[in-house]
């Protein structure tokens, strides 16, 4: 490949979302990659969804998304929300701002039925230091991978403390699935906090189609991942 060959860094997101863990009888945790679609289950729904209300909560600030089976249209992201036939909440094109706590609540004749069912949404997002769509070989690029999680809402602790206590890890792997470490001479891996990890490298001509993947694991089981692939222009 010629020295003047340009490389463009394309973010190809590979999703593997998973429900895992519980913070209460009807609570669930969902891990998802940004830009993907996600389904949040309502574990306390009744026979019909007209009794279902969905509430979004983050940092003790609540917003009603669905009221008695009807989507609220005066909220910023209403076009990305829908109610499933099983009363689940569907969110399309997830963004890093969608992380937080989602509450499914049931009402009959104005009275709440049963307890709340909470779903905690954790969003994995990767950003690049380069704002250009094309970058040439020899350029340095930094990929920042961050897990957005409102851990204070359910554990009352910081994201770092929550990750440490739950055995959750973020790390980069190459296209062969081998974990990249600080001992790799070509890569600079740093972790400003447990909920964020960065990869810095200088692109080579032979990096065409090379992949780097950021993974979130819980006790060595992958929950979700984001893959960046280098493509020649």
What does this structure look like?
It is a single chain. The protein is built from one helix and 18 strands. By secondary structure, the chain is mainly beta. It has two domains: 6-15 and 124-232, Immunoglobulin-like (Sandwich); 22-122, Immunoglobulins (Immunoglobulin-like, Sandwich). Strands 2, 3, 5, 6, 7, 10, 11, 13, 15 and 16 form a ten-stranded mixed β-sheet that branches. A five-stranded antiparallel β-sheet has the order 12-1-18-17-14. A hairpin with a 2-residue loop joins strand 10 (100-108) and strand 11 (111-128). The longest helix has 8 residues, at 159-166. It is elongated, with a radius of gyration of 20 Å. The N and C termini lie close together (12 Å). Residues 1-25 have low confidence and may be disordered.
Helices and strands in order:
Blueprint: E1 6-12, E2 18-20, E3 28-33, E4 38-40, E5 52-58, E6 61-67, E7 70-71, E8 81-83, E9 89-91, E10 100-108, E11 111-128, E12 135-136, E13 140-148, H1 159-166, E14 168-174, E15 188-193, E16 196-202, E17 211-218, E18 221-232
Parallel strand pairs: 3-11
Antiparallel strand pairs: 1-12, 1-18, 2-3, 4-9, 5-6, 5-10, 6-7, 8-9, 10-11, 11-13, 13-16, 14-17, 15-16, 17-18
CATH topology of the largest domain: Immunoglobulin-like
Low-confidence stretches: 1-25
CATH architecture designation of the largest domain: Sandwich
Number of strands: 18
Largest sheet: 10 strands, mixed
Task: Determine and state the CATH class of the largest domain.
Answer: Mainly Beta
CATH superfamily of the largest domain: Immunoglobulins
> Averaging pLDDT over every residue, what do you get?
83
Order of helices and strands: EEEEEEEEEEEEEHEEEEE
**What is the number of helices?**
1
The portion of residues forming beta strands comes to: over 45%
Shape category: elongated
- Please tell me how large the radius of gyration is: 20 Å
Helix content: under 10%
What's the N-to-C terminus distance?
12 Å
> How many domain modules?
2
Question: Structural class, please?
Answer: mainly beta
